[in-house]
Amino acid sequence: MPIQLSRRTFLASSAGFVALHPFSARAQANQAHLRLMETTDLHVHVFPYDYYADKPIDTVGLARTASLIDGVRAESTNALLLDNGDFLQGNPMGDYIAYERGMPDGAMHPVIEAMNTLGFDAATLGNHEFNYGLPFLMNSVAGAAFPVVSANVATQLGSGPTEDETLVPPYVILERSLTDGAGEAHPIRIGVIGFVPPQIMNWDRQHLEGRVEARDIVAAARAWVPRMKAEGADIVVALSHSGIGEAEWTEGMENASVPLAAVDGIDAVLTGHHHRVFPGPDYEGTPGVDAAAGTIAGKPAVMAGFWGSHMGLVDLLLERADGAWRIVSHESEARPIYLRGEDRSITPTVESDPEVLASVEQEHQETLDYVRRAVGKSDAPLHSYFALVADDPSVQIVSNAQTWYIEQMMAGTEHAALPILSAAAPFKAGGRAGADYYTDVKAGDIAIKNVADLYLYPNTVRAVRITGAEVREWLERSAGIFNQITPGEADQDLLNPDFPSYNFDVIDGVTYQFDLSGPSKYDSDGNLANPDANRVKNLTFDGAPIDPAQEFIVATNNYRAGGGGNFPGASPETTVFEAPDTNRDVIVRYIVEHGTVSPRADANWSFAPLEGTTVLFETGPLGTRYADQVQGVEIEPLGAAQDGFFRYRIAL
């Protein structure tokens, strides 16, 4: 039997006059407008609140997106609400539930409670759903009043994808009743299938190895979609928790939405994972993608930003003939919950939905108590304003804690005699996230919210055993964040905007310089681009040039050791220790153990001199408070830059 409209949907459609979408307004008899609404990468952001800064904000929150949902439903005759994954992890509320309150059988996760309140029709799993382990995941989604699907994660592999025993159902066929332009109701069967990057097997190896297997996204789609059609799916919607990447399919792709869209039988693709907006300029020029029309491989598609920043909309005008539906026209849009002015001011376009806020009010208050606890003191400020141009205190404390922990873990093992290095990267360093996206913790008490701000992800500690030659290559990979600089020229842009800061690993325990006069050896994805390039100079250990054959233990995290970022030497094969503890927990324990910590940067890396050469970079405006404290580099403030940033000059 077709499922009837929910009370919430009915109320939204009858709450007063709202202009109908043109597809609804002009649909004829045997034509119907179906609107697909997408949320993606919510990362537990229900309240419009920044728990790290401990203040309300207008740029995030499912409670804000919810207000869009009611209006969007009212604009269309028929609508589905779908989530594209990464909903269980990503902010302190997620950590509070996972590490403090827990998810025993029968408990309700707050983000699931909020989604139930909104009447989601279906959802898929994202890679971060696996961060807290399978029991937590399964107990969380057990409370969902909507199906959660994923076609390429199996508890038992069969002879082919359709013979797998999948962790959750691979797809669902939603039976609905569409109202056509003449007011007549017709049945439709809408297939919804989900996919997650197979890299989860590396990223969360400790939770998944021996418990599940992940198949290639496109291979799974090619197997399952024909079965959905055979079961009577009139249209098939792919929930692709996978970014928009290369057009040509290769086995095991992380960002496979373009070849996925090309699979026969898929009619629309709701994508995510990249934390970007589509349609829009982010994907202009991408093969197989029309960034203006909102199509991938000619199919309608959308990506709705992240943290509830947008509502993704795919509008389909369907026509019924001979008992079957076909798409005759389509449009895509990502509708924001706020507008950003030229002066970087934020103007919300909607207010929070009180019903959604009420559904998680208790957990919100408990999270505030959780993040405000003091765990120790720092005798120096912790900030990341200059983390991409000089050794940095926010990265230093992470490295210090990792080294402290791995020293204990290696004691008494076959690796105990090897020197320990530590690799860490800045997570909050501006970029696309804006001029306020920096760590900034004053000297004094350090609370859990500050530790979460230092280390955004619930990664677990890993240690790899590599050679001095591999240490050098690891640093060559990091050096890709810098543009090639022409010696003797003034005011060149220093940083490559396409290189994410979380892939700029600083390795403590060695000293080194970056010579930017040559090209990067590796591109932004970690592929070998210039085999003969050599940016890493004067690499020393214990006061002497590093021995390429000497072995080291390098403390890092499960993402990097699992191959994340494609760093030479970092792989499951070189991993010698897998910790049960998260990097955040290790930082907290390090602070508690020491009481007062001194996270001052030790300036173990710098730029090789280039006489008569200057470069420019931008950082958050509040960095002016610390500019004169930066070690190992001469920085000259220049003034305000675009989008709220502040510009500096460095004399190389």
Automatic annotation (TrEMBL):
Reactions the enzyme catalyzes: a nucleoside 2',3'-cyclic phosphate + H2O = a nucleoside 3'-phosphate + H(+); a ribonucleoside 3'-phosphate + H2O = a ribonucleoside + phosphate
Compartmental location: Cell envelope
Residue span, Calcineurin-like phosphoesterase domain: 35-276
PROSITE patterns noted in UniProt: 5_NUCLEOTIDASE_2, TAT
Similarity field: Belongs to the 5'-nucleotidase family.
Start and end residues of each 5'-Nucleotidase C-terminal domain: 436-568
Record has Mitochondrion as a keyword: no
Protein name stated in the entry: Bifunctional 2',3'-cyclic-nucleotide 2'-phosphodiesterase/3'-nucleotidase
Coiled-coil regions, chain positions: none
InterPro entries found in the cross-reference section: 5'-Nucleotdase_C, 5'-Nucleotdase_C_sf, 5'-Nucleotdase_CS, 5_nucleotidase/apyrase, Calcineurin-like_PHP, CpdB_N, Metallo-depent_PP-like, TAT_signal
Taxonomic placement: Bacteria, Pseudomonadati, Pseudomonadota, Alphaproteobacteria, Rhodobacterales
CDD domains hit by this protein: MPP_CpdB_N
Needed co-factor(s): a divalent metal cation
Keywords assigned: Hydrolase, Metal-binding, Multifunctional enzyme, Nucleotide-binding, Signal
Secretion signal, residue range per the UniProt entry: 1-27
Keyword flag Secreted: no
